[in-house]
Amino acid sequence: MNCQAVAEAEKNMVFAARLTQQGHKIASMDDLMELYEKSFSVQTVAAMGALPHPTIQKFAVITVAIVGASRRFLAQITRHQNEVKFMSASLQYSNYTGQADFAVPYSIMTAPAVVRELYLKSCNESMKCYEALCTAGSGHDAAGYATPQGLRNVLLISATPYQWKHIISQRVCRRNTDETRIVLLKVWKELYDLSPALFAPSLTGPFCQLDRCLEGKMTCGRKLQADMTPALPHPTIQKFAVITVAIVGASRRFLAQITRHQNEVKFMSASLQYSNYTGQADFAVPYSIMTAPAVVRELYLKSCNESMKCYEALCTAGSGHDAAGYATPQGLRNVLLISATPYQWKHIISQRVCRRNTDETRIVLLKVWKELYDLSPALFAPSLTGPFCQLDRCLEGKMTCGRKLQADMTPEDILEKDYPALWEGGCR
Question: I want to staple 102 with a disulfide (CB 3.0 to 4.6 A). Which of 79, 123, 317, 378 is the partner?
Answer without folding.
Answer: 123
